Automatic annotation (TrEMBL):
Keywords: ATP-binding, Membrane, Nucleotide-binding, Transmembrane, Transmembrane helix. This is ABC transporter ATP-binding protein. Its main location: membrane. It is a multi-pass membrane protein. The keyword Nucleotide-binding applies. SMART domains: AAA. The keyword Cell membrane does not apply. It comes from the Bacteria. One of its GO terms (molecular function) is ATP binding.
Length: 597
C-alpha cells in the first residue's frame, strides 16, 4: 500500500467521524500522550533511584518520589476524561454509520438489492462495522500512542547521548520497513477474510431460514457442509494471517533483542570507563525498551488496521450503490403513445396501461416483448399463462422496481414517470404469493397497511379479510407474536393478515400475484372470500395460477413468452379454443383425476 493510498483511505476513515472529529482527536491525543508520558517519566524515576543507590544522595530519592506522586495525580485526572471523550465520540460515530448504512440499504434500488445476498448485507452491517469501530478505538490510538512514545523517547535519548539516539533511529527505520512489507500482505488477507466471513453469514442465513426443509429432506450434511466449508475458509485465512503476524512479531523481536543487547553492552562499557553514570544508563535502557516495544505494537496496529480498512471498503461499496430514484423510472426508450382500441375490451378509462413494452433482466434475453396491456378502471383484469411467461415481471414494472427497456407505461391516463414513486405505490395495494410478515404482533403486521390506524380499524379490516375468527383463537389474540416471517401461523392465516393489511391501506388499485396458488383447498376458499371483499370497488390486476379463481374476471389476458397471446372473457376464450382453453382443460382434467383417485 503506497503512502498516497494510505492517506486517502485514512481520509475516508475520518470522513465518517466528521461531526465528532474535533472532540475525538482531542480525547484520543490527550489519552495517548498521557499514556506515553508514563514510560518516559518512569525513565527519570529509574535515573534518580539508581543515582540514589550509587551515591546515596537523598535529593535524588525525593525527586523520584515527587515525580511518581505528581504523575499519578495528574494522570488520574486527565486520562479518564480523555478516554471518555474519544470513546463517546466513537460510539456516536459508529451509531451514525450504522444508521447511514441501514438507511442506504433500504433505499437501494430493487435491481441493486437483488444482486446482494441478505447475509452479505447483514455481514457488512455487523462484522464490517465492528472492525471499523476497532480502528477508531484501538488501532488509531495505538499508532498515535506509539508514535508519541517513540518521538518523546528519541528526543530524550539524543539529549542524554546522541549515539544511542542514532542507533534507535536506524533500528527504527529497519523495523518500519519490515512492518510496511507485512502490512501490504495483511491488507490482501484482511479483504479476503472479510469476504469469507460474509460468505459464511450467507450460508448460515440460508441454513436458518430453510431449517424446516433441511430437516425434512435430510440436508443437514449437504447444507451444513456448505457452512463448514465457509467456516474452514475463514479458519484457513485466519491461520495464514496469524502466521504472518507471528513472522512480523518475530522480526520485530529480533530487532528489539539486538537493540537492547547492544545498548546494555555499550552502556556498561561506558560506565566502566567512567564516561557515563549508572543512572543515565538505566534511563537509556528504560527508554530503549520503550522504543523497542513501540515497533512491536506499532507493527501490530498497522497490520490490524488493514482489517478495518478492508471493512471500510466493503461499507463504502454499499454506500456507493445507487439509490432508488424518487421519480417513477422512465423507459429507456419510448414506444408508441397512442392507445390501440383493438386491445381494449370496453371503452373504459384505463387505470393501468402498458404500450409496446419490452423488458429483460439480461439485455440479450427479453422477458416481455412489445407487450400491450390495458387494465380498465374499476374492473378485474387477470393474467394467466405458463411459468416464466412474464406475469410477475409485469407487476414489478408497475411497482417501479425496474424501468422498461422500451415502451410506454401509463397510470390513470398519465405517463408513469410524471409520478413520484411513492405516489404510485400509495395508489396500489399488493398481495404476493407468499405474504411477508415481520416479527411482532398480529396487530403490528396489519397496521403496516396504515401506520396511524386505530385498533378498531385493524379489527374491522381483519373481519372483512375473514381473519378475525382465527385471530380470536390465538393465545394473545391481536397481541400474539407471529414469529420470524410469520412462522407461528399457517400459510392461509398469513395470507389473510396480508389481505387485512391491504384492506387497511385502502388503495384504489389492487395487485394480486398468485395470492392463493400455494394454499390447500380449504385455506384457498377462506382466503378467496377475503380477496373478494378486497376487490370490491377497486381496479384489480390479478395473476392467477388456478383458473377457477378468475372465471368471473372482466378481462382475462393470456401471457406466454413475454407476449399477449389472447384476451377476452372466460366464455370468449373457451369458445376460441386457444391457449386459455388448453390451460383450462389441463387443469380441469388434473382436478378431476385428483378427485377420483
Amino acid at each position: 500500500m503506497t503512502f498516497k493510498q494510505g492517506f486517502y483511505e485514512f481520509k475516508q476513515l475520518m470522513s465518517l467521524m466528521k461531526p465528532h472529529r474535533k472532540w475525538y482527536f482531542t480525547g484520543l491525543v490527550g489519552n495517548s500522550l498521557t499514556n506515553a508520558s508514563i514510560t518516559i517519566l518512569l525513565s527519570f524515576v529509574v535515573h534518580y533511584l539508581l543515582n540514589f543507590a550509587v551515591n546515596g544522595d537523598v535529593q535524588e530519592l525525593y525527586r523520584a518520589v515527587y515525580l511518581v506522586s505528581g504523575t499519578f495525580l495528574a494522570l488520574s485526572l486527565i486520562s479518564p476524561l480523555c478516554s471518555y471523550m474519544y470513546k463517546r465520540c466513537v460510539k456516536l460515530a459508529i451509531a451514525d454509520v450504522r444508521m447511514k448504512l441501514f438507511g442506504h440499504m433500504i433505499k437501494l434500488s430493487y435491481e441493486k438489492a437483488e444482486k446482494h445476498h441478505s447475509g452479505n448485507l447483514v455481514s457488512r452491517m455487523t462484522n464490517d462495522v465492528q472492525t471499523l469501530e476497532q480502528a477508531y478505538t484501538i488501532h488509531i490510538r495505538s499508532i498515535i500512542l506509539e508514535t508519541s512514545l517513540f518521538l518523546g523517547s528519541l528526543v530524550i535519548l539524543m539529549v542524554l547521548d546522541w549515539r544511542f539516539g542514532i542507533m534507535a533511529v536506524v533500528l527504527g527505520l529497519a523495523s518500519a520497513w519490515i512492518n510496511a512489507h507485512f502490512a501490504k500482505k495483511m491488507r490482501h488477507m484482511s479483504e479476503e477474510l472479510q469476504g469469507r466471513m460474509s460468505r459464511f453469514t450467507e450460508r448460515l442465513s440460508d441454513l436458518l431460514s430453510g431449517l424446516q426443509m433441511v430437516k425434512l429432506f435430510g440436508l443437514r450434511t449437504k447444507v451444513g457442509g456448505l457452512c463448514n466449508n465457509a467456516s474452514e475458509d475463514i479458519k484457513r485465512i485466519s491461520i495464514r494471517q496469524g502466521r504472518h503476524m507471528g513472522l512480523q512479531d518475530m522480526c520485530n523481536f529480533v530487532i528489539e533483542f539486538i537493540t537492547l543487547g547492544g545498548v546494555l553492552v555499550a552502556g556498561l562499557i561506558l560506565v566502566a570507563q567512567k564516561q557515563m553514570e549508572l543512572g543515565v544508563l538505566g534511563q537509556i535502557v528504560q527508554l530503549q525498551t520503550g522504543i523497542s516495544t513501540v515497533f512491536l505494537e506499532l507493527g501490530a496496529a498497522v497490520s490490524l488496521l488493514q482489517n478495518s480498512l478492508a471493512g471500510l471498503a466493503r461499507i463504502r461499496e454499499i454506500l456507493s450503490e445507487s439509490k432508488e430514484e424518487e421519480q417513477f423510472p422512465a423507459a429507456k426508450q419510448k414506444g408508441s403513445q397512442a392507445v390501440d382500441s383493438d386491445h381494449t375490451i370496453e371503452q373504459v378509462p384505463a387505470a393501468l396501461e402498458l404500450r409496446d413494452v419490452t423488458f429483460g433482466y439480461q439485455p440479450d434475453r427479453p422477458t416481455l416483448r412489445r407487450l400491450n396491456l390495458v387494465v380498465p378502471e374499476g374492473q378485474v383484469t387477470a393474467i394467466v399463462g405458463p411459468s416464466g411467461g412474464g406475469k410477475s415481471t409485469v407487476m414489478k414494472l408497475l411497482l417501479g422496481f425496474y424501468p422498461p427497456d422500451e415502451g410506454v407505461l401509463r397510470i390513470r391516463g398519465r405517463m408513469a414517470e410524471e409520478f413520484r414513486l411513492d405516489e404510485v405505490r400509495d395508489l396500489m395495494a399488493y398481495v404476493p404469493q407468499e405474504a411477508t410478515l415481520f416479527h411482532g404482533t398480529v396487530a403490528d403486521n396489519i397496521r403496516f397497511g396504515s401506520p396511524d390506524a386505530t385498533d378498531d380499524e385493524i379489527k374491522a379490516a381483519a373481519k372483512t379479510a375473514y381473519a378475525s375468527g382465527f385471530i380470536a383463537e390465538l393465545p394473545e389474540g391481536y397481541d400474539t407474536i407471529v414469529g420470524e416471517r410469520g412462522a407461528n401461523l399457517s400459510g392461509g392465516q398469513r395470507q389473510r393478515i396480508a389481505i387485512a393489511r391491504a384492506l387497511l391501506k385502502n388503495a384504489p388499485i389492487l395487485l394480486l400475484d398468485e395470492a392463493t396458488s400455494a394454499l390447500d383447498a380449504e385455506s384457498e376458499y377462506e382466503v378467496q372470500q377475503g380477496l373478494n371483499e378486497l376487490m370490491k370497488d377497486r381496479t384489480t390486476l390479478v395473476i392467477a395460477h388456478r383458473l377457477s379463481t378468475i372465471e368471473r374476471a372482466d378481462t382475462i389476458c393470456v401471457l406466454a413468452d413475454g407476449e399477449l397471446k389472447e384476451q377476452g372473457t372466460h366464455e370468449q376464450l373457451l369458445a376460441e379454443g386457444g391457449h386459455y382453453a388448453e390451460l383450462y382443460e389441463l387443469q380441469f382434467r388434473k382436478h378431476f383425476e385428483e378427485q377420483t383417485a
